[in-house]
Amino acid sequence: MQDYYQLGIYAIDENIAEYYCSFQGSGVAAETSLALNPRSAVSPAWDKLVFEILAKSFNLPIAETRAFYRPCGSFPSHVQSQLKSVEALRDYLTESESLPVFMKPVHTQKGIGGVLVNSYDPVLKQFDVIGLGRLTFNELILNAIDNPNREFYRPEAGYLVQSVIRQHHELTEFTGTEVPSGLRIVVQNGQGSGPVIHRCIWKLVRPGNHGDNFVRGTSGTSGTSGTSGTSGTSGTSGTSGTSGTSGTSGNMVCAIDNHTGEVSPAVTAFWPGSQWLEAHPVCGQRFDKFKIPFWDTIRAEVLRASIAFSPMQLLHWDVIVSDSGPVFLELNDLGGLDFLQLHGRGILDSSMREFIKNYGSLKQAPRLAKLLRKA
Q: Given CB 3.0 to 4.6 Å as the disulfide criterion, which of 3, 10, 202, 365 pairs with 254?
């Protein structure tokens, strides 16, 4: 019943039985991944270091890893700064030329533990952490490495310290903030049939927020397990996020036309508390007049990347558009499905249903199989 309202199914005028079956509720979201992505194939989606190594081998554009923190264990040879203690990490971050950087766990999902460290004040001995304000080093560690959410996070795997990505100037002008608004691109990657882009979403950051996590339309904080957050590698310097109420200061999502890169009106939150915006609420520019830059290049690079990670059959890509083209942030296994279904289109449309029936292992997804039988 909760999904019936949050996804806006109640407001659809078409045949409700047909449309209801195309919407995938939260109760079966994880089963889609289990059905299509063998557990032996998902390491690059869970282990950011494995993803980085594979992406480099296929010359995919990714964020630069400048340092790697791990108290024990081996280190990747391609990373210059190997930080083997908390003290080494502190010394690295307090060097003025090191910042800004984005830190994220090697083993994580849903953006947990990611922090953007913008600058360091040697007098106050505090870091400016986007979305969290000014923190001492111990407070920074508490919010990052010692993050208590261990369901999707393994601290012993280490931490990546990466360069900050600057988004395309047209996106900054449209959104009114340098904090990048990322793309989520879902690809069906059938063995033998090749990759096909199924769904594209633009996650718009409102000015004042620190990342593009949708978090049910509220501004949220970095490192939460909110809805479908990216890793945040794309963050840039800016003002700290503030808490807000749904639909007023929170981020937004637009659907992107798979072929043209044109964007739909924005949705501000889960329904029924959402708004349908024809123009940006802060900058005033109309969504129907805007097209994602480099769209043909983005499509081509996403399809090329999906072939490289072919053992996974359903890929959730997080991409940032820079002035030089697309940059891959990460690949997700348990990609959030709810925010992909807020524009009146369920994720289980005829294309996805047919794809799952042809390529999925439904023995591992009994509730999903039941839902497909109703369609």
A: 202
| Residues 256 and 197 grouped into a single domain | yes
Asked if residues 211 and 229 have their Cβ atoms less than 8 Å apart, the reply is: yes
- Which alpha helices (H) appear in 66-209, and where do they start and end? 86-93, 137-143, 169-175
| Helical axes 366-374 vs 29-36, angle rounded to 10° | 100
Q: Phi and psi of 31, rounded to 5°?
A: -70, -25
- The domain tally of the chain equals 2
Helix axis angle for 29-36 and 350-359, nearest 10°, is: 50
Question: Residue 345: phi, psi to the nearest 5?
Answer: -130, 115
In a domain, 123, yes or no: yes
Per the omega criterion (within 30 degrees of 0), is the bond before 100 cis? yes
* Residue 58 domain flag: no
* Residue that has been written with the tokens 């199989």 in this structure: 369
How is the beta sheet containing 314-322 ordered, strand by strand? 276-277, 263-267, 252-256, 194-204, 183-190, 314-322, 325-332
Shared domain check, 283 and 134: no
Candidates 119, 142, 90; CA nearest to 238 is 119
CATH number at residue 173: 3.30.470.20
**Boundary residue ending a domain (144, 164, 184):** 164
Question: Per-residue pLDDT for the chain (375 aa), expressed as one digit of tens each?
Answer: 455 545 455 556 655 656 667 777 777 778 999 999 998 999 999 899 999 999 999 999 999 999 999 988 888 888 889 999 999 999 999 987 889 999 999 987 767 788 889 999 999 999 999 878 899 999 999 888 887 777 778 888 899 999 999 999 999 999 998 889 999 999 999 877 789 999 999 999 888 776 777 655 544 333 333 333 343 444 433 333 333 333 445 789 999 999 999 999 999 866 576 788 999 998 899 999 999 999 999 999 999 999 999 889 999 999 999 999 999 999 999 877 778 888 878 888 889 999 999 999 998 889 888 888 876
Residues in Cβ contact with 183 at an 8 Å cutoff, skipping those fewer than 6 apart: 200, 201, 202, 203, 256, 292, 298, 317, 318, 319, 320, 321
Angle at CA of residue 183, ends 182 and 187, nearest 5°:
150
Using alpha carbons, select from 169, 131, 337, 130 the residue that is nearest to residue 253: 337
**Which residue range is the domain that position 97 belongs to?**
64-164
Residues 137 and 152 in one domain: yes
